[in-house]
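Sequence in, structure out.
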Amino acid sequence: MSCKTLMKAHIEQHLIFSPQLLNVLNAFITVYSVFLFVFKVMEIDESNEKALYRRGEARLLRNEFSLAMADFQQVLQVNPTNRAARAQISICQSKIKEHHEQDKKIYANMFQKFAERDAKVCKLTVLG
């Protein structure tokens, strides 16, 4: 076997049988299965508490925080005493806040870099 063939086989083996990849694949399949199941249940009963809760969990896993929070709020409309839904809403709120903070940091630095670059260009134009 050539070195290239061995290397290709090694890469393919690690891509296919990597535990991390399998975990990600399992999570994807689980989330996808949840969505399929939930939508089937909700065709029959739109206000099914458990289906709304599971859809909220799946959306939370997909980083769809606002949609997840809306699902958990619907759960509370169906059953105002659902403690798990209340806990999930506060998790969604903290995730949304965390996401906004990350966006602020990213965009603040980006605009600062643009401003610095524009200042240099203006300075060179005036001097040149």
